[in-house]
Amino acid sequence: MRILGLDYGSKTVGVAISDPLLITAQGVEIIRRQSENKLRRTYARIEEIIAGYGDVEKIVVGYPKNMNDTIGDRAQKSEEFKTALERRCGLPVVLWDERLTTVAADRAMDEAGIKSSDHKKYVDEIAAMLILQGYLEWLRNSGQEKE
What we know:
The chain contains 4 helices and 5 strands; from the N terminus they run E-E-E-H-E-H-E-H-H. The chain is an alpha/beta fold. It is globular, with a radius of gyration of 15 Å.
């Protein structure tokens, strides 16, 4: 079993995948689109990635709640993306609080010596890895990875 992690943004979707033992998250790619509302190719690419791994049983999508725990425009768009993904892929989709993952991704790139000008090339994929890794750790710590 694997879990797919997605960092859904207005023009990009960062993609990460778990290992079969649900221990680590690895970056896969960043899906880019021309316009926020053009998602057909994005969904198709996600379906291709799922088919390519063959054993993906769940999807985790970053849920960008506001710092005061309210739901803003981006979080509502993530809810709509979740609903469409469930319909298209037939897999359960979990929304996972992603507050500060982009900040953490930027910090990790700084620590790795990646120039700030290059951060945009990687930030969405790293954010997807952080979202998925957080979910995997929660599964392990809560004892729910067997479900």
